[in-house]
Amino acid sequence: MRKTAFAGYLKDQAALHPGMTAQDGVKLCFQAAFGAEHILADPAKARASLLAEFAETPPREMAVFEPISPEYSRCNLAAWKHLQLPVEWLFQMFLHSA
Predict the structure, then answer these.
(1) DSSP class of 7
(2) Residue pair 93/82 in contact by the 8 Å Cβ criterion
(3) Which of 26, 75, 77, 82 has a 20 to 30 Å separation from 62 between CA atoms?
(4) pTM to 2 decimals?
(5) In this structure, is residue 54 part of a structural domain?
């Protein structure tokens, strides 16, 4: 189903992630509006942050990508890890998406 209003994406994310906080909602709004460019101002720092978060995330079977706007999707690190995909692939996709 194609969504044109951001509210639909926000509702979907809240349903998928019942523990979502107000801070998570604001972060989602920012990501949906601006993508990843702000994080990639320092690629080395962005890579280190991704590696640290990836190391702490337990693998889990779930959707790998979730749309958060017509232009952007988020990657579930737990799903990526569950599929045993290289984290470096994810970083390169992230880097080239900005």
Answers:
(1) H
(2) no
(3) 26
(4) 0.82
(5) yes
| Euclidean distance between the first and the last CA atom of the chain, given in angstroms as a whole number | 26
Q: Is residue 68 part of a domain?
A: yes
As a whole number of angstroms, the longest Cα–Cα distance in the chain is 37
Would 79 be classed as within a structural domain? Answer: yes
Q: For residue 79, count other CB atoms closer than 10 A to its CB.
A: 18
Query: Under DSSP, is residue 4 helix (H, G, I), strand (E, B) or coil?
Result: coil
Average pLDDT across the chain, whole number:
91
Tell me how many domains the chain contains: 1
List the domain range (segments joined by +) for residue 12: 6-97
DSSP string across 19-85: T--HHHHHHHHHHHHHTTTTGGGSHHHHHHHHHHHHHHSPP--S-SEEE-SSS-EEE-HHHHHHTT-
> CA–CA distance from 15 to each of 20, 42, 60, 78, 97 (Å)?
9, 33, 18, 18, 26
pLDDT in tens, 6-28: 899 999 999 999 999 999 999 89
